[in-house]
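Dear Dr. H.,

I hope your travels went smoothly. While you were away I took the liberty of generating a structure for the chain from your last submission, since the lab meeting agenda had it listed for discussion. I wanted you to have the full record in hand beforehand rather than looking at slides cold. The sequence, exactly as received, is reproduced here:
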Amino acid sequence: MLDFKKIADILAPLPGKTALLIKDKTGVLYASPLAGEEFKSASLIKLAVACYYQAHPQDLSQMVHVPEDKIVEGGMLCHLAQRDWMLRDILDWMLSDSDNTATNFLIDFIGFAKMAAWFEAEFAHLHLGRYLMEVTDRENYLSAETALELLERLLADPSPFGQVCQKALFYQESVNKLLQDLPEGCSYSKTGELEDTEHDAARIFSGDSYYDICFMSHYTGLEEREQILLAQNAVGKLAYQDLTGK
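The corresponding predicted structure, in token form, is as follows:
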């Protein structure tokens, strides 16, 4: 069993605002006081976009066109000349590469207002307020509790859609937080970051045993960011060591 006193000791000196939620197949094992509070979502909102498509199935084999004027920074699509893709590829780019153009396309393909309304109706702490990379005073929000619910929905899905999402989350590019000190092939994850935000939602597993962990943060400055990242590294390492005995 995880040493929750060690985890509490890791969290205690951290600057800013943090939330940590840890679950296994039996349910919640550890929830810090802010686990149900809304944070700026950063790229964790992409889990919610994927869950919309899970609940409203589309033909993933259909070819779609990404307009040139909709290309934004963040991810590979802004570097590639190709603009016609299968819908499944756009979904994969969003989750594996955290591609912002792919995310915005998937929102627009359904309709911003329609997706935002479903988020509000389906989840207690999930709000779509803006596109990725949009400069506005609106914001996207979710809680650690909601983030893990989204991740768990995708990982529990045995359908072809679920398999696409699971493969993308398995090969997710960013691994500098909960997964920093872990070997490849032991996790599904989705990170998120902004200037003042470092989030990670992951399933760390060994055989049939696993921990689902969401670590969210809000801080100020590079020094505080470093403290948050080191804490995320430490929590992920503790979880993996407990699962494997290594």
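Two observations you may find useful: The longest strand covers residues 197-206. The mean pLDDT is 97.

With kind regards,
E. W.
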